[in-house]
């Protein structure tokens, strides 16, 4: 602020000397030649400007960027000097022009009032006792008779009271002065006269925007709907073609069987005929002694007549030799071989290939079911149907010994001394009462148990290897149905297949895998239906559960772990799901699943049973067929008409008491199992044995551990904190593990980015109505703020731009929250399966660039039309794009780091708080860290650059108060963009590191 007087005085001196030198020369020039007058004035002014240019750059560099440019804007009137010549014809121009003292007085008065008043202080000619017509704005007077006017006198006011009349064209007469000041540019005398006439442009833009919003709101789904209809037609045609092919094959086989029978009977008939003729010829030859007809002539006709039949016989024999092969069979004429999956390219060819293979597999599977001694696996069926060797999945056997999980902080044991083995090609059911650790057990098997200290041993194919190294071929189905609700069933499955199947697989083979899963899970009727969300109704709950399972089946896992997949399903849906899982088990997949109260039919479809008691202790682990035999040995017999798993769980829960003749207590069942298999029993388990098992307690002897002392509240809090920190560390270690033993090369980051981009684009198109509402709110905000905060020439529209920064930041930041807040849990599932976090983040950000580009247009189409600032719409658009890009990055950070409610609160408060801080704490380091300071400075500078000539005083005074620099326009844009990049990096870091359940 201390530099304000010096800067103002330097600018006043520049303008005063320029005017005095120019007008003094003009007074001595001849008014006859306007060109000569103009040249003389330009030359004098240019010389004065060049002389003062270094001082201007030094003193006023913060508000004057280019002295030559400002001179051309201010003084160069050579293109239209008519106003000056006309005024000089009056003959008294030097007597009416303000002197240096009056100019200095005028500028100082304006600066002292900070531009809030448009009149000067009382002076010699205009005061309380003397107020002539020349004191009114737009009027000026001539110097008194005998009064000599020295234009360079910077001290004394001349007396001007005679011949008062309006200002000459090209001059202005301030309120409170009786002299004239030259208009330094044509647009300076009338505020806002130099602004652009955007009325028609704004009206057209408003109409176009309204039309676009109407189209988006009503027809947003048509693009995807039409595409889905085309795919559905192609798919239906392929299904029809495949079924017709199968029917034709069946008719061909029937005709072939009939032909074989007729061929056999024809062959026997011909054999008897030929043998009879041969006997007759022999008899006639022996009787006639070689006389009569030549034997070859009668034989010629029969051979010719039977030629066609002989060809038919050969055909039948060739078909018999090629029985079971489809190489010679084709419905389409002229086609020799079926098109293989790797050679098909078009969509119709892909669907024909996929459904053709599926129909052939069904037919062969039906034939095999009719053969009682057929032990062919599903892989063999596929191999027979495709006439080629198929890829086999790696077989993974998981063995665990003395597996114990303990929370790191609180030391609570979740699993205790669990021993067993999960075999490939078998389906194991994990059952137990609530709190038995069923989900924890499966999480430990899958390597997802976080925040726990693990003891014991886990072997993969009899080798000590980390299970995390196989995560690309391990499918984990969570208990909650984590499915994208704004995608269709097919789109959900197809995305997972493309990202998680081998990159070497052709598209046709991936389509075949997806179609097999859709067919196996019975999802054909709803394949093109949206899954649905809380707000939008979609498929049923049972179908949603099957889609949740299908997301893991389409990646062809070697280990499939499911957490309560049948919960909420009816018996028919559960049976359909379990049949599909058994079909996967035929491929050699190791399947384990938590099940609650299965029906007796479902129970018998499992191969193995893992029964856990409360506290994470194993009660039984073995074949389902032997579980009743084992418990009968303990005296626990299942009553008639009672489902065995329900009875065992009721006993473990304590709802049902064992039989009175049972020789074991419920608490001793885990110990009985360990002793039955010869496992080592931990001492603490012996110590906690019941009185009925006192023999176990005796074995503990004096070495039994004492009860742990009760922890204080602080100790419990510290233990819980250690649990949370340990959980975060384990989650990070699991996701960042780079060791890969799965031998599956999934698509790289660029291809996954492409897949994610397509998925995000579809989601945005289906959310187009929400986007339309956002645009409507932005437009209304632009109308309101543009109307309420009119541009002030003294502040360059600072108030309106302040409201703009707050409103746009708030609306765009809240809109950015939807990109990540609602899909955190989906990201955690995809990330745990090995998908790229970077591809996911970049795809979201890339799609949001559409909002970064369009939202400023929507807002400015209203705000600029109603506010009408001097800066161009392009300058405002560039600044607003940088602001939206910056606040979008901040919104990402809030969405990822906070819960949705907290993120919305931060998004609403932050713009207001930062704006207040940047305006009240000017020049401080904290203010410079606020993005609102740079956004407002960019807007003000863009507008201030349009104020030239006499407005240079106002420009410099305003900029020196706010602390802005006219050279910082590009810097402001760069700082806003840098803030956007930094906050995006912070958001990505939080997304990778932090995770909540």
End-to-end span in angstroms? 55 Å
Overall 3D form: elongated
Strand content: 5-15%
Class by SSE composition: alpha/beta
Total count of strands: 13
Helicity, in percent?
Answer: 55-70%
Rg (CA only): 46 Å
Count, helices: 35
What is the arithmetic mean of pLDDT? 74
Unreliable stretches (pLDDT < 50, length at least 5) are 1-10, 23-32, 184-199, 282-339, 690-709
Major β-sheet annotation: 6 strands, mixed
In the sheet with the most strands, the strands line up as 9-10-11-7-12-13
Looking at this protein, list some descriptive labels.
997 residues, alpha/beta, 6-stranded mixed beta sheet, 3-stranded antiparallel beta sheet, elongated, disordered N terminus
Please explain how this structure is put together:
By secondary structure, the protein is an alpha/beta fold. 56% of the residues lie in helices and 8% in strands. The protein contains 35 helices and 13 strands. The strands form four sheets. The chain has a six-stranded mixed β-sheet with strand order 9-10-11-7-12-13, sandwiched between helices. The N terminus is likely disordered.
Per-chain topology:
Elements: H1 3-28, H2 34-60, H3 67-75, H4 82-88, H5 93-96, H6 100-112, E1 139-143, E2 160-166, E3 171-172, E4 181-182, H7 199-219, H8 222-288, H9 296-305, H10 307-321, H11 347-370, H12 378-386, E5 398-407, E6 413-422, E7 427-431, H13 438-446, E8 452-460, E9 474-477, H14 489-500, H15 507-520, H16 541-553, E10 559-563, H17 571-585, E11 590-594, H18 600-605, E12 608-613, E13 617-623, H19 627-633, H20 644-653, H21 669-676, H22 683-687, H23 694-700, H24 713-736, H25 749-766, H26 768-788, H27 798-817, H28 824-832, H29 837-867, H30 873-897, H31 900-920, H32 925-928, H33 931-944, H34 951-962, H35 969-993
Parallel strand pairs: 7-11, 7-12, 9-10, 10-11
Antiparallel strand pairs: 1-2, 3-4, 5-6, 5-8, 12-13
